[in-house]
Amino acid sequence: MMRLQRTVKQEVSFEGIGLHTGRHSSVCLKPAPRDTGILFVRKDKDSLIKASVNAVTDTAFATTIGYNGAKIRTVEHILAALAGLGIDNTFIEVNGPEIPILDGSSVGLTQLILEAGIAKQSKKRPFIRITTPILLSDGHAEIAALPFEGRRITYRIQFHHHFLGEQKLSIDLTEENFVVEIAPARTFGFLKDVEYLKANGFARGGSFDNAIILGDKGIMNSTALRFKDEFVRHKILDLIGDLSLLGFPIHGHIIANKSGHTTNLKFLKKLLSCPEYWELESELSQQPVLAYT
Question: CATH homologous superfamily of domain 4-124?
Answer without folding.
Answer: lpxc deacetylase, domain 1 (3.30.230.20)
